[in-house]
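Students often ask why we bother encoding 3D structure as a string. The short answer is that it lets us treat folding as translation between two languages. Here is a chain of 302 residues written in the first language.
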Amino acid sequence: MDKKCILAQVCKTWRKVLYQPMFWEGVTPILHAKELYTILLNGEKEFVSLQAFALRGFQSFCLVGVSDLDICEFIDNYPLSKKGVKSVSLKRSTITDVMLEQMQGLMHLELSGCNDFTEAGLWSSLNARLTSLSVSDCINVADDAIAAISQLLPNLSELSLQAYHVTDTAMAYFTAKQGYTTHTLRLNSCWEITNHGVVNMVHSLPNLTSLSLSGCSKITDDGVELVAENLRKLRSLDLSWCPRITDMALEYIACDLHKLEELVLDRCVRITDTGLGYLSTMSTLRSLYLRWCCQVSVCATV
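And here it is in the second language, the structure alphabet:
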């Protein structure tokens, strides 16, 4: 990426070639609020030109520390904002309900560390085109938000959620709609979710191929057994920072998850060499993460 940026400065011809959108597919520019304005001689602020981004056809942006006004300016000044932007990530933003309501037409939306919108504002931003939604460290997100997601996002394929106030009740809101379309679910540090929530989740989302319960500290071996018995299509499973998981959970995984390729067990402090012995029978497992597993010996990992 750095080479492309440097070569584009060599001459106009190279710039014209390297600014073709095909060279920038999959790239997401990260713009901080302070980078969006130029300070004029009279002290006034002028929004920067986004023409260079438009020439490269960027459809995805990450905006950091922006306000409603900054987002309005971005929409007004980016030539492709009306039809070309498909993915937006807002981090540590003060976005409010009013601006969230304007975020229509997106296919991917990420909200991280945004604490000035309400659940009602989140609902207003949900449109049927969304296929990927990520919400983390947003204090006003709780069970009702999951209810809205299940009702309004029939095409959702990927949901990532880090919300300390989400409970088992939220897991009951998933419907048959998500059961067919959703293949990735990340419930990171959802501290209130227990095995009861897992029961609801595994029956509603049987087609999951990737599941993260990282930091869901109330999940036990029984919850893992439910996952292993009902989510046979899983290829990736993250159980890191689940301190109640023991070797028994690994036996369930080894017996039932025959398609599993990646398993994350970081900080699962009750796992021992015995549990790794169960995993040694899994022919499909390609990646195994065991950082800070204090009862696992070096010999067992060789």
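Translate back mentally: The longest strand covers residues 60-64. Keep this in mind for the problem set.
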